Amino acid sequence: MSLEQRISTTMARAAEGVGAAGFTADEILHKGRTARVRRRARRTAAGVIAVVLAVVATLTATNLPDRTSQIPAGPTSPASPSPTLTGWPIPTSAPQSGTPAQDLGITIANGAEITSPHGRFTMSLPAGTYIIRGVHVVGGWVVTTESALHPQVDSWFQPSNGGAPIRLASERWETDGNRLVVASLTEATMTAYLLPSMVRIAQTRIPTDDNSSIAGVQIVDGVVYADYMHDASPLRTARWDLNTNAVTILAKTVLAWGFGGGSMLRMTGDGDGGTACADIVPTERFAEGGTTGVCSAYLGRAVGTLSPDGKRIVFRAANQPMLLVDAADLHAGVWRPTTITAAKYFIGWDRSSAFLTHDGDPIPKGDGNPSPILRCTGPDTCSPIGLSAGNPLFFVVTDNLG
Amino acid sequence: MDEDALREFITARSGALLRSAYLLVGDRAHAEDLLQTALIKTYLAWPRVRDHGALEAYVRRTMATTATSWWRGRRFRERPHIEVPDRAEADPVDPRIEHDAMWSLLRALPARQRAVLVLRYYEGLSEAEIADALHMSRGTVKSHASRALTALRDRLTRQTTTDDDRTGVRR
User: Fold this and answer.
1) Of A234, A401, B63, B82, whose Cβ has the fewest other Cβ atoms within 10 Å?
2) Is A21 in the B-facing interface, judged by CB distances under 8 Å?
3) Has the ipTM of the complex gone over 0.85?
């Protein structure tokens, strides 16, 4: 039997035992309708009134001299001052009673306004633009915005001294609070800037073919890890040392999912959805092999996030409940997850290592109330956080800068 | 939207589509996720699907492209509303296939190489059809197929050699 025949026969045999699908046509149609409503809410809303951005503000914002004149031609162009938008073209979210977000150390972005426990700051953004992601960095904020009026996503550095926001070349960015790395959306190129001056400190291109592009970047202790992909390979990770400008390709895809307590959640795999391994390691050991931790097919499909204190991880994967895992267990190779019963969707961690979550669609629809945004200290110990009316319909949490 | 037609299609074809999904991802639960995702995408695209006779090809293409971009997709910051929720208790697949050497090797291939082989040797598509389905050039399809076959040959040879060594067979 030829190799091709053997492949064909094996596939037929493997497929034989699969059995019937565990869902009905009506379930798919229902999910399709729900997805369509959500998509419309996003588009027409253009949706969203604002976004809650829970930000772990561990760094102190300082007023540093404005050196924007040193910014290279690429990522610049200040936003044009915008008229105040008096309303959004979709319903706003309902008020929610509970301990006010600011009292919990949670920073919220509502439209162009960032409200932290220390005060409020309003970015000067084009009309109808709202923040969907943000990180508090030295001397300001790095944020990504969407427009309610146009299908447009932009990223910005907003100095906290009140200077005009500076538009970045790409929405694909990451920061360690002191440096900012921006990756191209179409090529395997990256540029690093010093914050808050936005002086360009390095630029590189991953040595791969022309069809490659970068899927995501992480920056740890002056070293950038970029996962990239091209037509003829699964995801790969490149290591870029900002001090030497040297780029090396790692043997396995290595991803960082959060930093906390001097450690990080490191996941390694073959990059195409097979088995992956997760471990908690000191940040300086990011690229080393010999992981202990736990390896499984579930982890190959899961996304994990480490709490700011480095003690807990929330894992989630499509069609699976969220799991809470003790970091020490994981590092010891023990897989002992607790199912989070209170809600299905993870938003992020707050500064005290409680996590924010909700149980469904926070977008108010005609057929029901939005689900409340909860703060959980354990898998089933959650309570709503206090939010005023008009808060975001969906939101994204920053990385932990811890 | 003619939901009845789509309901009828899903009822009639989800079993066959699930088998293809399983070959693409090599895991029963993951296959069900993949198929649900592809069907929901199809529902959303339904008004734009002009040739309803080609619906199955559309779903299969969506599965293939989704399967090869899953890891990459999850890398981006997720938003809750794009997740496909709930349910997926899967029946275990025939345990005998889990011990099949060739199946283990096929599952170990990178996603795109595996997708090309599934479309070629299970779905019976031509190179041109695979290129169209996966949005890649025919040259890239050839390259994936060639790499996959070479890898399988190498690994099979290595396995055979190892087995022979164990049993004391000399060549």
Assistant:
1) B82
2) yes
3) no
